[in-house]
């Protein structure tokens, strides 16, 4: 019979127990022992839960106190020298110093850089390596986890980040070749695998997600060298795991590596099954990733069963394992905890636990159990009914999208004409100053919001409090002399949730937490149905704010791509269709803002870049619809209405054409940390529209002085036309304190005044 397994489980705990334990330890409120006890309790709970859900084999070493890439770096002693003194005193403190920096006992260490794990919203710590780097086995985490599982009665499969992906995900601080370090790294890998074999592990899983990326010949050669070396050593049987996409042009490579099993993602790339089966050497196990580890929907038996049957027919039950497409790290733990969701909304959903249960049913069906067949037929019928249920399909939305004219993406005139019109109507000074939208979210505001939600603060009192905050923000901006004002976003908890709550087609979970990094989690809202706007969402706040001042007030919206990127998106429609629906809803908001006298409207797209597909070849299609959706949102407004967009820390070199095609009148970007380097792409492209390169790093409590901002602005003026340049911070100010913000914005306005004098 086919085995049911999975390659990793969420670590944080249903009630975010790990988060609480970590933060308590970091505050010094509890001991390391307490934290490790919580971690052990969670591992046991999750193994038990998965086994009860029907898993035959559980993974181990998928758990991490902070991040599995950091675990791997520490495991192989890839510890930059600055952290070593902390490790010398306490291993766990050393580990957390790498994760979050360390300011204690005369140390002031910054953390490792963090970056996104492929195209997920999980962030990993980037190991820092250097030429001549030595590696050695440090500690015994994978072995300890294996023994811990066995003690509890589970024959677990240790999961390791594979050596080549580990190197490709690392960076060298001296610019030397990462892959050149492979041979040095293999020795401790081999040691470790030997230890696991000695301890009785019959399988080990080597995660090589980089196999779904565009690789060059050197990377491919590294794969061959690495896996040949492991094959020559004494190791458990090796399962090579690819996920997040098709193996594509790396299939021949993957299938040629001397391993005992191959895991492939058949959710993102079901079409690769035939080629995989053709390429798979005899005797190899195929771990078929058929249930989506990236999303919260039940699988469709009509899609999954044919894949499994085909694989079963070709390789038989013994060689076929059933698994989620990737680690379940990216989905919440248990739908059973969502007691507030009505059953009809809940029925098509599956969290980690339910995904393992689904796999069990598929395995039972392959084995011919009639109940399993009945269950799958029922599941398919349910999904079919759901797909047409009221609330899921909105005929008006479908019709509007179907009949949408291509004209909808157009502004009335080209940028040069709009520019002149806007200059006349807005009458801004040269080098106008503005901010990105949010002002500090004070404790008072957060408490009031919580009280309002809990029904302890009535609507009127809450509204008055927010109005008072808007007024304070407006008066402050007038006082220091900013040119384009914002209302400060005090009414928003989160830039996606705020809109999601007002749109049809969205639902919210109670405990749908997903780890973002370390102890940080997000609770992505769920798009289950067609997106429609019930009523104006922001006009109330923007017009109130505008009524307080003669300066232009900038309306503030989250763009369609960002709304999508930070939500769980329905899987019964193409993402681009959902995005177009979102764009139409936001377009109506743009028009309502315009009609209410808001002449400047910002549509934030900080997540546009992170939506890029993993393979270059897929970029143009994504960028085309992403840009189109932005243009639908902004389209049709008067020439006098100035459309802004904002994009956070992101490289622009390879997407500059798309950014230019968005054709926002003004774009603000995050540039202060890179000291304006990120402007290069715009300069090379001769980007013609307005641009505000950030001069204030809002991620740091440090307040830059006027001279520092002037220096950045001089750099910008050296390469941009003065008529293009706007002056603003890098991003919104919601995480900063008022004292810092007052000073920093004051310096910013002073730098603008001085620069105007120099023009
Ligand atoms: N308007 C948002 C703010 O200022 C933008 C946030 C973001 O880019 N992440 O908070
Ligand atoms: Zn931003």
What's this model, at a glance?
The protein has 759 residues and is of the alpha/beta class. 43% of the residues lie in helices and 13% in strands. Helix 10 links the parallel strand 11 and strand 12.
Alpha carbon gap, first and last residue: 78 Å
What percentage of amino acids are in beta strands? 5-15%
Give the C-alpha Rg: 27 Å
Number of strands: 24
Q: What does the overall shape look like?
A: globular
Mean pLDDT: 97
Bound ligands: glutamine, zinc ion
Order of strands in the sheet with most strands: 1-14-13-12-11-10-8-2
Low-confidence stretches at least 5 residues in length (pLDDT < 50)?
A: none
**Number of discrete helical segments:** 28
- Main sheet? 8 strands, parallel
- Determine the structural class based on helices, strands and strand pairing: alpha/beta
Question: How much helix is in the residues?
Answer: 40-55%
Domain Cobalamin-independent methionine synthase MetE N-terminal: 6-314
Function: Catalyzes the transfer of a methyl group from 5-methyltetrahydrofolate to homocysteine resulting in methionine formation.
Protein name: 5-methyltetrahydropteroyltriglutamate--homocysteine methyltransferase
Catalytic activity: 5-methyltetrahydropteroyltri-L-glutamate + L-homocysteine = tetrahydropteroyltri-L-glutamate + L-methionine
